[in-house]
Amino acid sequence: MGCASSDNIIVGSEIVIVNSSLQRRFNVEVNEQLVGTLRSGANRAVQVPNGRNSIWVGYRIARSSGGLSSRRDAQDWFLVTDFNNERVVVEAFDNSWGDVRLRVVSRTALHQPPPGDPLQAAAIASAFNTLDQLIPNGSRIAIVDIAHGNESSVFAQDHLTLLLVNSQRYAVVDRQSLDVVRAEQGFQLTGEVSDATAVSIGHFLGADVVIVGNIAGNGPERRLQLRAISVRTAQILAMALEAI
C-alpha cells in the first residue's frame, strides 16, 4: 500500500474492475489473493501497492480426477500491469466463445493532497493514531464527511484516507463509491452529518465503520474532531480531538 510519514506521503494505486457483460458471478483475485466476487453490472475497487500487480477474474471448476477445486487453466484470464499512483479501470467481458477477458480501459493519476500546514498534518496523524488503537483490525472503513467546507476539510479527509490505507490494516471505501451511494439514495449532506445518517450511508456501502467529524473554531482555537462509529451497533468506537 505504500508508506506514509510526516515528510513524504506515498500514495498507492487503485484497481477498479468493471463487469460489463458477464452474466455469472465470478471470483476476483489480486496478486493471488481472493478479494471478493463480481456480479453482472457491478464493479469492485481494490487498493494495491505501486509496482507490478496481477489481476484474475474467473471461476473454479472441479478437476476430472478426485473432484478437487482448481483454477481453470486459461492464462489469458490474467492481466499483469504496472501501477504508479493511479486509478486503473479494468473491464471484464465475454469473448465470442464465452470466456472471460480483461482489458485496461482507462488510467487516471492519483495526486497526493497539497502539503498544507505541517501542524495540520501532525494533528491529523495524532487523531489517526487515536482511532487506529480502537478500530478493529480488518474493518472496512468509509470516511463519510469532515465538515468545514473549505480546503482544510479536504486536506484532512485526504490525509486521513492515506494514513488508513497505508496502515495496511483496513479496507477503505473509495470516494467514488461514496458519491454514488449519496446520489442513488438521495442523501443530502449539508453541514455536519449526523451519526444516524453516517451509519445509513455505511450500511449501503457495506462498511463496518464510518468516520465523521468537523473542524470548528478559528485561529488558535480551531479543533479537529473525529468519531469512528460501528455500522452494526451505531456505537461510537473511538473519538479524537486535536488542535489544528
Q: How would you characterize the overall build of this protein?
A:
- With 244 residues, the chain is an alpha+beta fold.
- It has two domains: 13-109, Immunoglobulin-like (Sandwich), CATH 2.60.40; 118-243, ABC-type transport auxiliary lipoprotein component (Rossmann fold).
- It has four helices and 15 strands.
- The chain has helices at 118-132, 151-166, 175-185, 195-205; strands at residues 13-19, 26-30, 33-38, 43-48, 51-58, 60-62, 69-71, 78-83, 86-94, 100-109, 140-147, 171-172, 209-216, 223-230, 236-243.
- A hairpin with a 6-residue loop joins strand 6 and strand 7.
- It is elongated.
Features:
4 helices; 5-stranded mixed beta sheet; alpha+beta; Rossmann fold; 2 domains; Immunoglobulin-like; 244 residues; 15 strands; 4-stranded mixed beta sheet
The rounded Rg comes to 20 Å
Mean pLDDT comes to: 78
What is the number of E strands? 15
- The coarse overall form would be elongated
Strand numbers in spatial order across the main sheet = 12-11-13-14-15
- Say what the CATH topology of the largest domain is: Rossmann fold
CATH architecture of the largest domain: 3-Layer(aba) Sandwich
- Integer tally of domains: 2
SSE string, helix = H, strand = E?
EEEEEEEEEEHEHEHHEEE
Low-confidence stretches: 1-11, 61-76
Please give the CATH class of the largest domain: Alpha Beta
Name the structural class: alpha+beta
Write out the CATH superfamily name of the largest domain: ABC-type transport auxiliary lipoprotein component
Estimate the helix proportion, in percent: 10-25%
Intertermini distance: 27 Å
Task: Please summarize the sheet with the most strands.
Answer: 5 strands, mixed
- How many helix segments? 4
